[in-house]
């Protein structure tokens, strides 16, 4: 082994041992660990979300989103909880949440869960037609999406209830005018 051939080996050794510079394999492994940790936080967030603990879910979705910002599903759920926690309180933060969901949907064409979240946003705002359209879009992407099926039924029932209520109120107003 000549001195010329040994220099690159010595540099690699000093970089790793003395300077703590990681190899490409070590850097790749760190990235994989970060993704797996973010996935665990996201799954824990989904459990809190399903239990109705939006504050804790929001914290977990935020951590997952910050760890892997390019993951559209993490972004969409973080956006939804941001919207939900701020709707009616802080319109700028609520709108930021909506924008995050829309961006996730735009960047990931097959994100059926994102369309479900968008439908929930529309329903929260009382826009049943757009919520129904969002849930149908989710079902077009994934016909077995049970959340989309359930929420589509709920939105259709709420829309029918609102129409019936409006019809009843119009009828009452007509009766009062006659009296």
Radius of gyration: 25 Å
The level of helicity is: over 70%
Note the beta-strand portion. under 5%
Q: Count of helices?
A: 8
Secondary structure category: mainly alpha
The separation of the N and C termini measures 109 Å
In summary, what is this structure?
With 179 residues, the chain is mainly α.
Task: Explain how this protein is built.
The chain has helices at about 5-20, 25-50, 55-65, 70-85, 90-105, 110-125, 130-140, 145-179. With about 180 residues, the protein is mostly helical. Helix 4 packs antiparallel against helix 5.
Describe this protein with a few key phrases:
179 residues; mainly alpha; 8 helices; 84% helix
Secondary-structure blueprint:
Layout: H1 3-18, H2 24-51, H3 54-67, H4 72-86, H5 91-107, H6 112-124, H7 128-141, H8 146-178
């Amino acid at each position: 082994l000549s001195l010329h051939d040994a220099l690159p080996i010595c540099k690699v050794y000093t970089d790793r041992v003395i300077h703590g510079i990681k190899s490409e394999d070590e850097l790749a492994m760190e990235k994989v660990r970060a993704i797996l940790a973010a996935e665990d936080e996201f799954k824990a967030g989904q459990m809190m979300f399903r239990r109705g603990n939006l504050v804790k879910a929001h914290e977990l979705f935020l951590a997952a989103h910050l760890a892997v910002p390019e993951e559209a599903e993490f972004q969409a759920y973080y956006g939804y909880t941001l919207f939900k926690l701020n709707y009616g309180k802080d319109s700028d933060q609520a709108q930021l949440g909506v924008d995050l969901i829309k961006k996730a949907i735009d960047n990931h064409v097959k994100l059926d869960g994102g369309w479900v979240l968008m439908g929930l946003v529309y329903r929260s705002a009382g826009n049943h037609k757009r919520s129904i359209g969002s849930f149908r879009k989710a079902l077009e992407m994934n016909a077995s999406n049970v959340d989309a099926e359930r929420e589509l039924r709920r939105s259709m029932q709420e829309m029918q209830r609102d129409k019936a209520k409006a019809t009843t109120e119009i009828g009452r107003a007509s009766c009062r005018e006659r009296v």
